[in-house]
Amino acid sequence: MRDLVRGRTWRGPALASTVLALGLAATGAGALALHSAENDHAAATLRVRAGATQAAVTAAVARYTATAQDLAMVAGNTSTAAARADVDASLARLSRGALPGAHDVRLIAPDAGRSAVTGRTVDGGAPGGGRWAGPPPEVAAAMDVAHDSGQIAVSAPHVLPHDRALAEARQQLSFVIAAPVHSADGGTFRGWVLFSLRSGDFLAEALSSGTHATVTAALADVSDPARPVDVASWNADTAPADPETATLPVALGQRQLMLTVRPGTPLIGEAQRHLDTVLLTGGALLTLALSVLILVLVMAQERAVTAARLALADRRADADALRLAQIALREREAELAGFSALAADKLQTPLTNVASYADLLIEEAGPQLEPASLGFLDHIGRSTQRMLHVVDELLAYTMASEAPLRLEPVDLSQVAAEVVAAHVAVSATLPSVDIGPLPVVTADAALLRQLLDHLVGNAVTYVRHGTAARVTISARQDANGWWRIEVADRGIGIPAEHHHRVFAPFYRTPAAEGYPGTGLGLATCRRIAGLHGGQVGVESNPGGGSVFWFTVFDGASDHQSGEHPAFLAHRA
Predict the structure, then answer these.
(1) Which of these, 38, 48, 54, 413, has the minimum number of CB atoms within 10 Å of its CB?
(2) pLDDT band at 474 (very low <50, low <70, confident <90, very high)
(3) Is pLDDT at 367 greater than 90 in this prediction?
(4) Is the confidence at residue 191, as pLDDT, over 50?
(5) Three-state DSSP state, 439
């Protein structure tokens, strides 16, 4: 007997360890989800900034392309004698504001020396038209591509001849855009329009307005993947606020450019960065408190049961000792009930405060918070409500055997309708519930409502994801006056080998993995049915699902005489 008693002392630590492990796992998963949401928010913010930066650079490139095409069209639509005057008039209208980074523009003749017909500077520097001594190799190659393809071509990055006299620190890599000029009928090649732009000035002027001050940007020519060339940078002196980087392509004629964008200011707020840590710490503390509570409750109950069993084993013949042991057991159970009430007050109050303050923050500060922050507060509130639900079920199970019975006529049809209405009101998918004729029985109305609420709640919860629950509530009576109340569902079902175990405290079938629950609901149902002298059970439902049932005595008048089975069970 002593060996059997000693062998049960593992239950308290095992249950506490299980709850602690599950709670920490759930808290860790929540914190990980918050951390992932923070990273997703940062990545989305960077994508928005990088997209705006890419759009600004692409728009500036498009203005160059459109301007070059317009000038080529003007030069091609006039005779040779009039071309210079028309082109000069078009060149006079060019401005640095419309063409960021532009240095000069020229109209080049298709002669052997490729001489400049006309030209002007756009940036206010020394005129370039009169100093043309033939194109550099990079420009000549682009002119050949434009001539052969009939399309705009862009030179490889190089230092403009005009800039080679500058100090090396002031020199910039530049591009030259070459647009072929053809006669209006498309048959005669008349030369080229050349635009030269300094890449550093181009990037700085293209990104000088709007939200681009919040990023650092670098532009590289990757037309030859084996030899990429860094051509320009923007806000290079600003230290990146986050390690994230976005790399986006930019097309410039036939050349392939790559724009690398880094955040210059933090992507997420400082307070938002630590929400996952707050959730992890708070959840760990709450889980630890709940585990300690379970350990204390179970160990206290085991000590009381152990004392009673040892007393019965050692003093079986001593009636007085047995009576004293029974009295001691009842006193211990009363102390356990008192401790449960105290624990409920001490643990439920902080949890309720956390949930209330989360709701208050959403209501009062919601309009000023970002959507991600609102989501974090909502996650904290829902996690706290789940913790409160666990505490409520644990205390309901502990106190079920101590509840004083208040027997009275109970209309099960009305109770079932109220229970079903409460679950339908909060269900995400509208369940189908059929309530058959139910009897009026003599029972404790509050406890019987709690029992039926657990069974209906399980029937609408444990369904395959994405499907609506189908539940049938019915009753039948045997010859001895007992009613069997059945709650049948079409849910995930319970294997036959688990039918006799699902009513044990904290036991959950493998099929219930991923569904909310503590494993105490059915154990509480068994206690309530036992208080009424009845039984509970489960069977497989033909066609899928389960049929949970409990028995309750009709006893329309037996409770008056004290012969109702609930009186007898409670006395025993």
Answers:
(1) 48
(2) very high
(3) no
(4) yes
(5) coil
**Spatial contact of 524 and 454, defined as CB atoms under 8 Å apart:** yes
In a 3-state reduction of DSSP, which class is residue 323?
helix
Cα separation of 97 and 113, whole Å? 32
Residue 312 and residue 256: Cα distance in Å, rounded? Answer: 90
Average pLDDT, the chain: 77
From residue 185, how far is each of 31, 266, 571 by CA, in Å? 69, 56, 112
| Residue 234 β-bridge partners | 217
| Amino acid 279: pLDDT | 66
Give a three-class secondary structure readout of 471-526.
EEEEEEECCCCEEEEEEEECCCCCCHHHCCCCCCCCCCCHHHCCCCCCCCHHHHHH
Does residue 127 have a pLDDT over 50? no
pTM greater than the 0.70 cutoff: no
The residue behind tokens 């109050």 is 349
**CA 439/CA 204 separation, integer angstroms:** 84
Question: Is-contact 41 324, C-beta < 8 A?
Answer: no
For 434: left if phi > 0, alpha if psi spans -120 to 50, otherwise beta; the answer is beta
Query: How many CA atoms lie less than 13 Å away from 446 in the CB half-sphere?
Result: 6
